[in-house]
């Protein structure tokens, strides 16, 4: 049977993002490339950027690798796809178009492996894209004969670039692959893990060392010396007078005092500790604590409140549960906040521990073990009896000895009896305080060790659960599949074939305050996306909006918007002082269509990271480059944009790359 605390940990997976605004996986070096990285490493990272959807950055790195002499069939294949991914022919610069036309010289294919086959198929597809008499059946057969890796990459990255008769054929293949891969590799069970930070080791607040005031030690030692000396003097008086029964009574009294002291210590420790825990666990509204009201403590408190409100025992009302556990929540909050206060760790990194402690509390309640401490700390009857009878024996023996000592020694006896009583009381009370301090510390230490063991086991389970966390490439592939599935929904609604669409573009933006995460150097990924698809047809622009629940791969009810080309007045990306970037499309009637591409709460970049570079990679992966090209053309040219031929586009690009003054463009 699975332990209840395991179950409590598992059910938290889909909601463990509470309070998390952004996670940067500092332990992942998926996109990290050093300035002096060798050519092979540059290509490797470039290939990852291509897989992650940031084709612009991928092309830069692969170009650098080629310039350093690293040229293989695999490099050529990735370079070719990076050049055309997410772009149309009109988007290529004159230099890029020239490189594409001169592939015989720019690509060096050696041997006959799967990568070389992929390059050949891509070249044939590019050659056939602009021809009306191309044999599509032969091309589709060659594409189908490729290995799954090369075939999948071609279908994914050449969707926008191809046109003409190939468009519908390719789209059917692209859509089929997207439907097959959309929920592949356990997506629903794994996506949430991408938004979890690398957990830090569990920490438990260590008990404070035993601190007994020096005055207490002085009273204990001095009182013991005086009481022992006075007792010895009384024994001497009794012996000199031959009071053997009184001597036996003295021994009885001392023995009774020892038994009573030992049992009394145990009784007081148990009752005092039980009372202290009862007070700490007391239900009701939060009371003042010694914990400073710092930011960390407040964050920990919010998370404990959230998870205890989520993990409500069966049959209990949430508010009742929170009221009953108010004291326990305060105690757990203080312990966790105090343990991590000086470590520099973020709350997100030990959020797993807070969730585990909350789930464990519910399990203890449901199993009826939450109040076990009351039974464990209850004073046994034998201890009570020993304390009572020990005290009676001490009192009886002491009374007998006192009477005989007074008769035997007079005032001297009275003085010795007074010293025994006073010094014994001072010594006994002081030794009791010292012993209690050590007993409480030992109990705290045992409780800490038990908590440490439980936390370490929970940490191991959590690490094991995150073992198959998806990488950024997998996230990008799933997102690309979602976009294609949504595009097919739009095509079906408008009863269009892909060949009926002159051009299409898309925007992938964060939906509201959805949780986000990224690997260093990579684009932001979100739990919820706002997706916009723009279909340019002969009749105008068809816009299809939907909110994507990324872990589930499902869409909310889509929203539709149709408008004429002439209705588009401006298209821009507005950048604010807070570093937020918002896509804006303005229509003639004053309506604005917006999507926040980069949020205002951008975290500080990791060391060796450029925040501007991170923003550019995020915008590139979100499809902004292609979308701006298409919609800016519509805003500038209106419906005439559709009739622009490649020659006009090449002329415009030539003017951009080679200014009139003859200087080469940067």
UniProtKB/TrEMBL annotation:
Biased composition (Basic and acidic residues): 644-666
Superkingdom of this protein's organism: Bacteria
Transmembrane regions: 246-265, 383-402, 408-428
Region (Disordered): 641-666
Keywords: Membrane, Transmembrane, Transmembrane helix
Name of the protein in its database record: Uncharacterized protein
């Amino acid at each position: 049977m699975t332990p209840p605390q395991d179950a409590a940990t598992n059910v938290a997976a889909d909601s463990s993002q509470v309070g998390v605004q952004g996670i940067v996986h500092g332990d992942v070096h998926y996109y990290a490339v050093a300035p002096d990285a060798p050519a092979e490493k540059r290509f490797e990272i470039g290939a990852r950027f291509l897989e992650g959807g940031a084709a612009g950055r991928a092309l830069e790195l692969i170009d650098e690798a080629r310039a350093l002499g690293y040229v293989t069939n695999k490099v050529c294949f990735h370079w070719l796809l990076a050049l055309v991914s997410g772009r149309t022919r009109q988007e290529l610069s004159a230099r890029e178009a020239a490189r594409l036309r001169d592939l015989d010289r720019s690509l060096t294919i050696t041997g006959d492996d799967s990568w070389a086959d992929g390059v050949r198929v891509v070249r044939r597809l590019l050659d056939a894209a602009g021809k009306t008499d191309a044999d599509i059946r032969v091309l589709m057969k060659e594409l189908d004969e490729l290995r799954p890796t090369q075939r999948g990459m071609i279908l994914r990255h050449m969707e926008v670039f191809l046109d003409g008769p190939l468009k519908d054929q390719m789209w059917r293949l692209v859509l089929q692959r997207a439907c097959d891969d959309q929920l592949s590799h356990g997506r629903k069970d794994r996506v949430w893990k991408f938004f979890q930070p690398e957990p830090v080791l569990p920490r438990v607040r260590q008990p404070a060392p035993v601190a007994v005031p020096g005055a207490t030690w002085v009273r204990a030692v001095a009182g013991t010396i005086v009481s022992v000396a006075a007792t010895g003097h009384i024994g001497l008086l009794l012996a000199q007078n031959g009071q053997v029964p009184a001597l036996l009574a003295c021994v009885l009294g001392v023995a009774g005092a020892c038994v009573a002291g030992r049992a009394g210590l145990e009784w007081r420790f148990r009752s005092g500790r039980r009372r202290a825990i009862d007070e700490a666990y007391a239900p009701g509204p939060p009371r003042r604590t010694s914990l400073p009201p710092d930011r960390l403590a407040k964050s920990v408190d919010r998370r404990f409140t959230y998870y205890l409100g989520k993990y409500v025992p069966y049959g209990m009302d949430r508010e009742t549960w929170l009221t009953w556990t108010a004291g326990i929540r305060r105690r757990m909050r203080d312990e966790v906040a105090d343990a991590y206060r000086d470590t520099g760790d973020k709350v997100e990194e030990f959020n797993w521990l807070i969730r585990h402690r909350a789930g464990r509390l519910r399990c203890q309640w449901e199993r009826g073990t939450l109040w076990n401490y009351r039974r464990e700390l209850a004073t046994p009857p034998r201890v009570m009896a020993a304390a009572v009878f020990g005290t009676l024996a001490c009192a009886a023996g002491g009374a007998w000895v006192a009477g005989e000592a007074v008769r035997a020694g007079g005032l001297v006896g009275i003085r010795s009896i007074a010293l025994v009583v006073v010094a014994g009381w001072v010594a006994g009370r002081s030794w009791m305080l010292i012993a209690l301090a050590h007993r409480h510390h030992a109990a705290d230490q045992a409780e800490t060790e038990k908590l440490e063991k439980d936390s370490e086991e929970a940490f191991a389970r959590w690490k094991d659960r995150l073992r198959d966390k998806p990488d950024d490439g997998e996230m990008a592939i799933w997102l690309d599949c979602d976009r294609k599935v949504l595009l097919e929904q739009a095509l079906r609604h408008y009863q269009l074939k892909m060949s009926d669409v002159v051009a299409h573009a898309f925007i992938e933006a964060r939906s509201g305050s959805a949780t986000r995460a990224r690997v260093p150097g990579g684009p932001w990924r979100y739990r919820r996306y706002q997706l916009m698809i723009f279909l340019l047809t002969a009749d105008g622009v068809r816009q299809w909006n939907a909110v994507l629940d990324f872990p589930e791969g499902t869409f909310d009810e889509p929203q539709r918007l149709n408008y004429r080309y002439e209705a588009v007045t401006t298209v821009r990306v507005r950048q604010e002082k807070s570093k937020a970037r918002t896509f804006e499309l303005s229509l003639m009637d004053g309506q604005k269509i917006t999507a926040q591409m980069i949020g205002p709460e951008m975290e500080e970049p990791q060391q060796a990271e450029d925040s501007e570079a991170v923003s550019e990679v995020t915008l590139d992966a979100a499809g902004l480059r292609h979308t701006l090209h298409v919609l800016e053309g519509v805003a500038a040219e209106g419906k005439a944009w559709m009739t622009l031929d490649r020659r006009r586009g090449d002329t415009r690009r030539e003017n951009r790359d080679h200014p009139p003054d003859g200087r080469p463009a940067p």
